[in-house]
Amino acid sequence: MRVLLLEDHRAMREMIADHLKERGFAVDAVSRGEEALAAAAIAPFDAVILDLGLPDMDGMQVLASLRASRTGLPAIILTARDSIDDRLLGLNSGADDYIVKPFNLLELEARLRAVLRRSGSARDPTYCLGGVTFDSVTREAAVFGRSLDLTRREAALLEELMRVPGQVITKDRLEDRLYALEDSGSTNALEAAVSRLRRKLAAAHASAQIETKWGIGYRLVEGEPA
């Protein structure tokens, strides 16, 4: 899942981004409305979290522009504006949720997952195929009940493959989903992550296997246990 975070307070922006990255999200974090609109024009985000008090434009303007180009993009307002009028304005302007600062990071994450589920970007938080289970909330993977030790990137890759079992996901699509603009991965980096994950699944004797469609991408299929 790829999230656009618009927050002008540097420490808070970094705190939120670090937490979401640790929880398996790819995060593009920016501080200005113009930067957010530019990023949204070139990247396939699953959701946006935005502050309202920005140095270059009001967050409501950003939300309106995003809604004009991506009507189904889930949006969460995260702001210090706590009056009922501000809340009503934000929700009536198209926000899916409205969170007042100060806030709890775990609650923010839970609300983000909730709006993603409602939008259809995220479904059942637990995926199962070929003896492999992956909990998208806890970020834990297991093969036939035995824990599978994965890096953050490997877990994100497994999640993307398990969300659409049997379907080919192109390399470009996977790179967009796994890497933010600031740490965009090369094709070699993606291939290396696929290779590592494939080895770990095989070592755990999973019957779920990563199949390569040369020149196109990858898919997760069920076969004989490795």
Write the layout of secondary structure elements.
Elements: E1 2-6, H1 10-22, E2 26-30, H2 33-42, E3 47-50, H3 59-69, E4 75-79, H4 84-92, E5 97-100, H5 105-119, E6 126-129, E7 132-135, E8 140-143, E9 146-148, H6 152-163, E10 169-170, H7 171-178, H8 187-203, E11 208-213, E12 217-222
Helix pairs in contact: 2-3, 6-8
Describe what this molecule looks like in 3D:
The chain is α/β, with parallel strands linked by helices and 226 residues long. It folds into 2 domains: 2-119, Response regulator (Rossmann fold), CATH 3.40.50.2300; 126-222, Winged helix-like DNA-binding domain superfamily/Winged helix DNA-binding domain (Arc Repressor Mutant, subunit A). The protein has helices at 10-22, 33-42, 59-69, 84-92, 105-119, 152-163, 171-178, 187-203; strands at residues 2-6, 26-30, 47-50, 75-79, 97-100, 126-129, 132-135, 140-143, 146-148, 169-170, 208-213, 217-222. The two termini are 29 Å apart.
Offer a few descriptive terms:
Arc Repressor Mutant, subunit A; 12 strands; five-stranded parallel β-sheet; alpha/beta; Rossmann fold
